[in-house]
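Sharing a chain and its predicted structure for anyone who wants a worked example. Both blocks are below, sequence first, tokens second.
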Amino acid sequence: MKRTIYTISLALLVVGVAQAQYAPNKDLPVAKGAPASLDPTAAATAWSGATSVKLPWDTTNQRAASEPTTAYIQTDGKFIYVRFDVQQREPLLAQQHTNNVGDGTDDEVWIDLWPTGNNGYYYQF
């Protein structure tokens, strides 16, 4: 039991430290307008009305990202649209599957939504 509590405490500490390093606590105003193009081959200019944010941190290796990534976020008032532009030197890695999802093992991007702030439930897509 002690070991479990210690492990959970350590995990919470690590998450807290990691959050402080790459996710400053600030609001990101999300652009509202007509839905952006959902065509994955569309140029980034198709998302020019969206809010963009550079993602400078490699969460896996806890260091500055070596491959530039930009997220674009927009809403039409009903849905949230997210696009990630990632520059990558090596081929995509997609070999591990849990319920047909590479969870933390392959190349992936996601967005966490915390509708009640940083306490309570969150949704990961």
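Comments welcome. Confidence is low (pLDDT under 50) at residues 1-25.
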